[in-house]
Amino acid sequence: MSSAGDFVIITGLSGSGKTTVLQALEDLGYFCVDNLPATLLRSLLQELTHHQLDPLRVAVSIDVRNRAFLDALPAALQQLPDECGLQPRILYLDADDETLLRRYSETRRRHPLSDQEAAPGAALHQVLLRERALLAPLVSLADRVLDTSQVRSHSLRLRVQAWARVPRVQGLIVLLQSFAFRNGVPADSDFVFDLRALPNPHYEVELRPLTGRDAAVRDFLDHQDAVQTARSSLEIFLQQWLPPFAQDHRNYVTISIGCTGGKHRSVYMVESLARSLARGGQEILVEHRELDIQERHS
Fold first, then answer.
1. Half-sphere exposure (CA, 13 Å, Cβ side) for 17?
2. Could you give the CA distance from residue 138 to residue 79 in angstroms, rounded to a whole number?
3. How far apart are CA 230 and CA 214, in angstroms?
């Protein structure tokens, strides 16, 4: 990608959050276009370059609404670096069928591939299969595949904005997220660590309504030898293995830390590791899934 700008293509399944992503990039100052035919990518960039936008930051959404032009996308992408000087980055949004079905039920919108005469219920499963098949070639082209099944809209905005900032920051962006095993392991995890064997503040009556962000819970866990051993081991592990990710040209790594309820031990550990890594200059995103909290540490 040229240092003169950034060009992002957003693609993926209908209902996976592409509109949210496009809005998040627009808030960062990107010139955004939704549902652009792939054959017009070159013309769009040439026009924007002619108007000398500085910096040139462009985000385009391309999906199955554009199915007549999808086959032309790989060839169009190959031409862009030579003709326009920008190497596009592709973000592919995915989600499991259960989540997509629920979202369509909640919004009452019809899938763009749906038969207008068909009932939206059982037929939607087949439509999703067809969409996945049509978009399969784009998955292999993507710089990042993001599963949004368990990602709330605000969290998705934060993640995408951090990803978009990669050309303007050095090193990895690390997402540290706490979660409850009983609610499922985050699908986008690169590493998963299980803290359920550690002493649990839940069994202390006065600590039960609090979280790992509260001083009383922190004090309790600070004085547990097993917790401190686990924290030290995780710090050593991350200090050893995050640099190879950066050397392999990865720009984003997700570390998920879970406990039973996702409220005490995992939250405490994520906060502690975030402070430690941030002191070393690491760009950090923090998410506490069960608390619906997202923050940036840098």
1. 26
2. 16
3. 20
CB under 8 Å to 249, separation ≥6 — which residues? none
Q: Where in the chain is the domain with CATH 3.40.50.300?
A: 5-168
- Separation between Cα atoms, residue 243 and residue 239, nearest integer Å: 7
Q: How far apart are CA 235 and CA 35, in angstroms?
A: 44
What is the tens place of the pLDDT at every residue in 125-163?
888 998 999 999 889 888 888 899 988 888 888 888 888
Q: Could you tell me which of 159, 180, 48 has the C-alpha nearest to residue 93?
A: 159
The enclosing H or E element of 129 equals helix 123-139
Q: What is the DSSP letter of 150?
A: T
Residues whose CB falls within 8 Å of the CB of residue 188, separated by 6 or more in sequence, listed in order = 146, 147, 151, 254
Q: What is the spatial order of strands in the sheet that 191-194 belongs to?
A: 191-194, 252-259, 173-180, 283-288, 293-297
Contact 36, 86 (CB under 8 A): no
* Residue-level pLDDT at 183: 92
Q: What is the CATH number that goes with domain 5-168?
A: 3.40.50.300
Pairing of strands 283-288, 173-180: parallel
The CA distance from 81 to 88, in Å, is 8
Question: What are phi and psi for residue 166, nearest 5 degrees?
Answer: -50, -45
Share above pLDDT 90 across residues of the chain, in percent, rounded to a whole number: 48
266-282 pLDDT, tens digit each = 999 999 999 999 887 77
In Å, how far from its chain's centre is CA 168?
18
Name the pairing type of β-strands 89-94 and 31-34: unpaired
37 Cβ contact partners less than 8 Å away, ≥ 6 residues apart = 66, 68, 69
pTM greater than 0.85 (yes/no): no
